[in-house]
């Protein structure tokens, strides 16, 4: 017995040092521990609580095993295990009694991921305050670490050794491997590559450190500097030389899904030590400076998808050329497709030339796409050459040079000042329909000729019989046409019964918003759409007996397709019920984003302003039937999962005008945003939306409402008045005194204020078109000095 007690005592003594050492990494996770994917509260936190390891729910798609900033409200993810294979609710990650760390999917029972290549001897795991998740042995030696297996992000104190890689995720909310890669090469250079997506193999480099000496490691030090070091530890080149205190700021360097490597910071508090930094991720530096111009490859999609155009603004903004739309509005990398039937080839191709015309776009180019080149050539000759060539999708012309480019187009970008004119070949809107009508008329005529011949060659009895048959055939034909035309009025839209929508909204219980003419409810389409969330807008006091006009307008809205518009999914037109069903926007309205407690960063506000302008341009010029919105305001701009701007309620102005019984005025819009012509009985044109956009742009730029009764000074109550006064007196800094990012980019801020002043001119003819407005925001067209708008107060008083 004494021997046994002595043995036990010695055993306990042996364990004490190991237990003490094991605690040096903070809150250790013992063997046999596990986490279950139930919600976003299933995680292990680091000792300070600044980082967490566990499950994050990614929309409705499943759960991601990840590491994230746990004290940042949006819980920014810095590492993930299963981005390519999300697991379902109830799945577990377990540190087994044998020291194996693995993730199992509950639906298949299969092992989805395992921390491998660390041998044996694991006795605990730990989430460290550096953001590193480790598996360690009894001596606290890290046998496996997330820092050694990075995904798209590196953190302070983390290093990348030679042949290490970062992969960009596919989109903002899709953590599978995307189209870009950062690699520290064996020659010591850090390079950014496009990949041969969907394979991981590299395609073409588009940025490099270009050093002659061999870099051994990429360092991210505690002061926030990112640099390449030689074998002796000396610095070879700086990647980001911004010095920011880790005590005051969270930091990360991420290869974002758009292919740009960015160094971000986020203040840990709002105290004096961080100054007036926004409580949001701000970009300190980024590589490359212009990704649109950097990617110059002869295969692959480039910075944006096939047939698209890239515009630089701290990263690519992707858009479709005139006559093209996104293949998938939620995924710009899939590129654009033509809205028309391309020119056919063969003997009949030449007669088709008259069915096409050219949409012009300045400074737009798709390099390395041409299959033919002519010099010298006039622009008219270049146009005719492209029209006559069935392979030609775009002709680029500059200074007597003509390039013919075929589909698919790639590496598309705006090249400011290049002088290149893009001539985009587009089919006339009516040409396809005319062709179809012509074919149907031929069929109808041949049928009548056949019947006529039979009548002439038959007896009287047969004539009567054939006459009756002809009547039945013609009647059936027109009935058939009527049945074809009816669905066309609601093309691409799903028809919902009132009962379906009542069930989807749980009896219209969860109200998202209410306006003068409609109430919006949150719903979920459980049965046929796999639990898809929707916004259900119930229109009030609609005219009940104008069935055809209602369906025609709904059809017009339903045929719109643009990444900056909220998509109409379907409708209900049953009895007294007129209901519209839209896709659900998870991040609410621009009003909540702009006027909340923390100021959004300047870069994101610029993207939102440009997105709204592009959405308006589509409504005004590019969709099949021109739409004037009539109520552009922050509440009608919704934000998608990636904080992209989506215009909502477009087309409703015309729908609501069907019923004038419930309104005392013909004015459409919201006080403060309404153009002066509404009050003067002047013609209502597209320029009313431009005016409203100008007011909205000032709100986006200044991050405050157009009218603030509690303003510090009476002169500052009306933002439009105050903005013009500040501009005229060269005191724009007064508008942005609490916005450091704006103060550092005063030239751009001034340009945006000038654009807004042009938009809110009292004379509609002085306001820019939506096309010119968009080009000014993109930087393609210079912004001249705006005149005094004369009166800002007419729409407010």
UniProtKB/TrEMBL annotation:
According to the entry, what is the taxonomic lineage of the organism? Eukaryota, Viridiplantae, Streptophyta, Embryophyta, Tracheophyta
Reaction(s) catalysed (UniProt annotation): L-seryl-[protein] + ATP = O-phospho-L-seryl-[protein] + ADP + H(+); L-threonyl-[protein] + ATP = O-phospho-L-threonyl-[protein] + ADP + H(+)
Q: Which SUPFAM superfamilies match?
A: alpha-D-mannose-specific plant lectins, Protein kinase-like (PK-like)
| Alphabetic keyword roster | ATP-binding, Disulfide bond, EGF-like domain, Glycoprotein, Kinase, Lectin, Membrane, Nucleotide-binding, Receptor, Serine/threonine-protein kinase, Signal, Transferase, Transmembrane, Transmembrane helix
Q: How does it sit in the membrane?
A: Single-pass type I membrane protein
Q: Which CDD domains match?
A: PAN_AP_plant (cd01098)
State the source organism's domain of life. Eukaryota
Q: Which PANTHER family match?
A: G-TYPE LECTIN S-RECEPTOR-LIKE SERINE/THREONINE-PROTEIN KINASE SD2-5 (PTHR47976), G-TYPE LECTIN S-RECEPTOR-LIKE SERINE_THREONINE-PROTEIN KINASE LECRK1 (PTHR47976:SF108)
Instruction: Domain (Protein kinase): give its ranges.
Output: 506-781
Name the Gene Ontology molecular function terms of this record.
ATP binding; carbohydrate binding; protein kinase activity; protein serine kinase activity; protein serine/threonine kinase activity
Bulb-type lectin domain location: 20-148
Q: Where in the cell is it found?
A: Membrane
Record's GO cellular component, any one? membrane
This protein is called Receptor-like serine/threonine-protein kinase
Kindly list the residue ranges recorded as spanning the membrane: none
Provenance organism: Prunus persica (Peach)
